[in-house]
Design a protein that fits this description.
Elements: H1 13-25, H2 28-35, H3 39-53, E1 58-61, E2 64-67, H4 69-93, E3 99-104, H5 106-122, E4 128-133, E5 147-152, E6 159-174, E7 186-189, H6 196-203, E8 211-215, H7 218-226, E9 231-235, H8 240-245, E10 248-250, E11 256-267, H9 274-288
Parallel strand pairs: 3-4, 3-5, 7-8, 7-9
Antiparallel strand pairs: 1-2, 5-11, 6-9, 6-10, 6-11
Helix pairs in contact: 1-2, 1-3, 1-4, 2-3, 5-9
Length: 291
């Protein structure tokens, strides 16, 4: 450590940026994910900053890291300074974003994003939309794309979460089967959503027979029902465009609110500038609209 009594020059901006992320997120690993670097690189930059200042900023342990008293005192100062610098730079020099990159599961891209993008992009000539498909929900924390559409209860540390649609399940089948839906093969969607037995307990109606088809994504379950292969307890959110077009028909009026929902999320630092906030607000409004 350097001598704490001597005056300090301003530390490199990259060290401060990494320290702020690690302190805010409470994790070197999370800071590495947000900054697009490695955990080892984060650890080295913070160690460099500590050597520069002559003070320990984090306590390291087998359970992770926590801020020291000096670290807790320094974090709000660094956060405010970086925010002011970021906002001032954006206000003076930046233009509206010309590229919008969004990560989501395939079913969320096809069911939520794409049906609502035409009018959004029509109002922003020159803006390019880029999507990144995430193969599994568990992979979101590894995804580097800042803007993400996620499914759940909206509690992801370090991220701003805007609810787009609450999840609602309803029996659905291809058009023409409304009267005979109970004779159709039963489609099951595996995962965290409630299933047919839950729907039956909630609605008071009898559950259909045992499943003939079983899928691990709602998108596949909706596709199978659309092609006439059976009846699915479908998401009214992901299936909204299919219901609007008549490709799918609700076969029961009984709906089931799951307590989960679809969220547009981004890191807390992503929309610090007015132009970024405007595009995030506009995108949120567009994704909340009806198909």
């Amino acid at each position: 450590m350097s001598d704490p009594a001597r005056p300090h020059s301003l530390p490199p901006l990259d060290w401060l940026r990494i320290f702020e992320a690690a302190g805010r997120l409470g994790s070197f690993t999370a800071a590495a994910g947000e900054s697009g670097t490695t955990q080892a690189a984060v650890s080295q930059r913070i160690r460099n900053l500590e050597n520069h200042l002559g003070r320990e900023l984090f306590v390291r342990s087998a359970r992770g890291v926590t801020l020291t008293v000096d670290g807790e005192s320094y974090l709000p100062l660094v956060h405010q300074a970086l925010t002011a610098l970021r906002q001032g730079t954006d206000d003076l020099f930046s233009t509206a974003p010309r590229e919008l990159r969004i990560a989501a599961l395939d079913s969320h891209i096809s069911g939520i994003l794409l049906p609502r993008m035409a009018s959004f992009l029509a109002q922003r000539p020159g803006l390019r939309l880029i999507t990144d498909s995430v193969p599994k929900r568990s992979r979101f924390d590894e995804e580097k794309t800042a803007l993400q559409i996620r499914f759940g209860r909206g509690s992801w540390p370090g991220r701003v979460c805007r609810l787009l649609h609450s999840e609602e399940l309803q029996p659905m089948a291809a058009g023409g089967f409304e009267e005979e839906w109970r004779s159709l093969p039963v489609i099951m969607v595996r995962g965290e959503r409630p299933g047919w037995e839950d729907w039956a307990a909630h609605s008071g109606a009898a559950a259909p027979g045992p499943p003939v088809l079983s899928f691990d994504t709602m998108g596949h379950g909706l596709s199978a029902a659309t092609s006439g292969q059976g009846v699915v307890l479908g998401s009214t959110v992901l299936g909204a465009h299919l219901l609007a077009s008549g490709a799918l028909k609700p076969v029961s009026e009984q709906k089931f609110q799951t307590g989960q929902g679809y969220w547009l999320t981004w890191p807390e630092s992503f929309a610090a500038s007015p132009k970024r906030r405007e595009i995030c607000d506009a995108l949120t409004d567009a994704l909340r609209s009806a198909c």
